[in-house]
């Protein structure tokens, strides 16, 4: 809460959200939630900062994937023993295309894996940006809105249920997608 009330909290949120989209393992919700709790009247400003910073970080992740995958990123992935994870991500891109970016942007799936992979796999940049903006925006505005409406009680519930909420929304989107592709 001390960081959330600090005068540099919006900058810290922007920085955290930016680097989380590329490499950092801690989700920005851990700073966004207390910031909204301490200043609910600025909830939409904070959600906007998180969304814009995340999409900008995602764009950098995309470019890193496009330009530095083979010389730098792929050897690290292989060294860490994550080649099978990369294969899974590539399969998801093959099956779902830009939708996987939207799902990763909203859900508990690490968004950073998909920003770099989208660049490496040559996903069209504009659809990538659109899917990222919608997915990340939905996530951050949902968190900010729920905390603004529910206060401290809602913050603890969100911490407890955010993964479940994310997966339920992802499953609903997949179900709707499958339904529409089957009926077309």
UniProtKB/TrEMBL annotation:
The keyword Transmembrane helix applies. Pfam families: VTT_dom. Keywords: Membrane, Transmembrane, Transmembrane helix. The keyword Cytoplasm does not apply. It comes from Thalassotalea loyana. It comes from the Bacteria. InterPro entries: DedA_domain, VTT_dom. Residues 42-147 form the VTT domain. The chain crosses the membrane at residues 12-37, 43-69, 89-107, 161-180. This is VTT domain-containing protein.
């Amino acid at each position: 809460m001390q960081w959330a009330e600090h005068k540099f909290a919006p900058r810290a949120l922007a920085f955290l959200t930016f680097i989380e989209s590329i490499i950092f393992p801690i989700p920005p919700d851990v700073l966004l939630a207390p910031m909204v709790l301490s200043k609910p009247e600025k909830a939409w400003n904070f959600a906007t900062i998180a969304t814009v910073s995340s999409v900008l970080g995602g764009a950098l992740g995309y470019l890193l994937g496009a330009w530095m995958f083979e010389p730098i990123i792929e050897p690290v992935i292989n060294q860490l023993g994550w080649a099978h994870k990369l294969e899974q991500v590539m399969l998801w891109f093959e099956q779902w295309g830009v939708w996987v970016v939207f799902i990763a942007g909203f859900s508990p799936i690490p968004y950073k894996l998909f920003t770099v992979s989208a660049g490496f796999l040559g996903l069209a940049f504009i659809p990538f940006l659109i899917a990222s903006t919608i997915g990340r925006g939905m996530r951050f505005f949902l968190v900010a809105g729920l905390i603004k409406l529910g206060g401290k009680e809602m913050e603890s519930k969100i911490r407890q249920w955010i993964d479940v909420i994310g997966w339920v929304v992802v499953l609903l989107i997949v179900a709707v997608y499958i339904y529409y592709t089957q009926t077309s």
